[in-house]
Amino acid sequence: MKSKDDGALRPRRATAVFVARCGSGLAWCSRKIGPGIVTGASDDDPSGIATYAIAGASYGYSLLWVAIITTPMMVVVQGVCARIAMVSGQGLTTAMRRVMPLWVLQSLVLLVVAANTLNIAADVAGMSSAAELVTHVWSGAWALGFGALLIGVEVFASYRLFASIVKWLCLSLLAYLVAAFVVGVDWLGALRHTLIPEFRFDRGWMATFVGFLGTTITPYLFFWQAAQEVEEEREHGRLTVDERRGASEAEIRASRADVTSGMVYSNVVTWFIVLTTAATLHAHHVTIATVQDAASALRPLAGPAAELLFALGVIGAGLLAVPVIAGSSAYALAEALNWKAEGLAEKPSSARPFYTVITLGICFGVAADLFKIDAVGMLFWSAVVNGFVAIPILIGITIAGNSRELMGKWRNRRGSNIWMVITVVLMSLAAIGLVVTA
Q: How many angstroms separate the CA atoms of 422 and 428, rounded?
């Protein structure tokens, strides 16, 4: 008579072993994809993709080097935001209330929410137009479908489910890396322009340069990064501020690695978007204004595969970024107005104002697409508002990061402060340049 354990001693089939190993590999990847990677990936939203595509199509490889300088700036800024949340146990807005007048902070938050709403509208327009290009189904139907899906997932699903979905959507941006190898690229020329900065002092190039910076370093990333660090703490059972306050050396190291990975990933994707459009659209003197223009123009130049990959990347990026942008508005507003219940871990019935902000933000994006409001105009004004608002917020983040009372031994180091100052200076020049070149 065979024992119950005999079956366990039998060698498993190759298929079963392969499936088991794939499952363990996916689980490992899911554990390694943290708030920093999600935040970095969400920076390459459809509006950002449009900006980078226009940069490549209009000026070729000449702006590739910008992705190199924005990488350390994003690493430092997002790292400070993450550290503030981990050490204080609170979101970014709550932390900055201790170093900034409340009325100033609330005014800035309202401007951020307005800019985020315009950004969501531009993103929904980009997603729906890309989906229409691939499927030939009316973009309005796609906008309604995307809006219902995003509200359903972010408002009515659990935070654990939402986080797991958002993590895997980060991989959709790999489509742009694949697309670069489908088209013909002058790799030596691209490397030269990446390592040697090039400046052109004509109005069009300067406006594109300013838009590049403004699209890459945006306030919604600051608030989302900090909020997700707090949500991660809640997921580990630390429900009160006192339980979350403080961070160990290992936790800070892990957060630093996560943020660095996310920001590098974001800028690598940015670099490949500029590369792909420069190698195809610029080389054939094709002018574009939207992501739909970029995707459709790739078909005759690089084949249907490049067009499909580009369009799918836009859709995946939008599904990732829109919940992040809407969520950052809700977090910032909830902390600025001191709402009692806030966060994606809360149920809709107990955090109605928080989820109302998310719902209205996404609904406005859908309505803007249905009524054919100018997506390029919304993107422009979103960049203008973000460009100006980012400056005082960055100053507030720097002050909070250097606060002995708030941060203790985890105050900013000299290198972080230097990069924060560089970022503030460049963003100030970008804000001024955006108005002048407009």
A: 10
Residue 423 confidence class, pLDDT cut points 50, 70, 90: very high
Could you tell me the sign of the dihedral formed by the alpha carbons of 167, 168, 172, 173, in that order?
A: positive
What the block records as the tokens of 33 is 């994809």
Measured CA to CA, the distance from residue 77 to residue 166 in angstroms comes to 22
DSSP of 360-414: HHHHHHHHHHHTT--HHHHHHHHHHHHHHHHHHHHHHHHHHHT-HHHHGGGPPPH
**pLDDT category of residue 276 using cuts at 50, 70 and 90:** confident
- Give per-residue pLDDT as tens, 44-93: 788 888 888 888 988 999 999 999 999 999 999 999 999 998 888 888 99
Instruction: Name the residue with tokens 């981990």.
Output: 86
**370 within 8 A of 124, measured Cβ to Cβ:** no
Which conformational region is residue 67 in: left (phi greater than 0), alpha (psi within -120 to 50 degrees), or beta? Answer: alpha
Q: Which two tokens stand for residue 11?
A: 């060698």
Amino acid identity at 208: T
Distance of CA 403 to the CA centre of its chain: 27
Residues contacting 81, CB < 8 A, separation 6+: 92, 221, 222, 223, 225, 226, 397
Percent of the residues in the chain that have a pLDDT greater than 70, as a whole number = 84
- Tokens 């149920």, located at residue: 347
Location of structure tokens 């990975």: 261
| Helix segments in 303-351, DSSP class H | 304-336
Highest mean pLDDT: which of 328-332, 349-353, 431-435? 328-332
State the residue for tokens 């130049």. 301
Neighbouring residues of 14: CB distance < 8 A, sequence distance ≥ 6: none
Helix segments in 43-91, DSSP class H:
46-59, 66-88
Contacts of 156-160 with CB under 8 Å at 24 or more apart are 156/348, 159/231, 159/235, 159/343, 159/344, 159/345, 160/235
Whether the Cβ atoms of residue 355 and residue 159 lie closer than 8 Å to each other = no
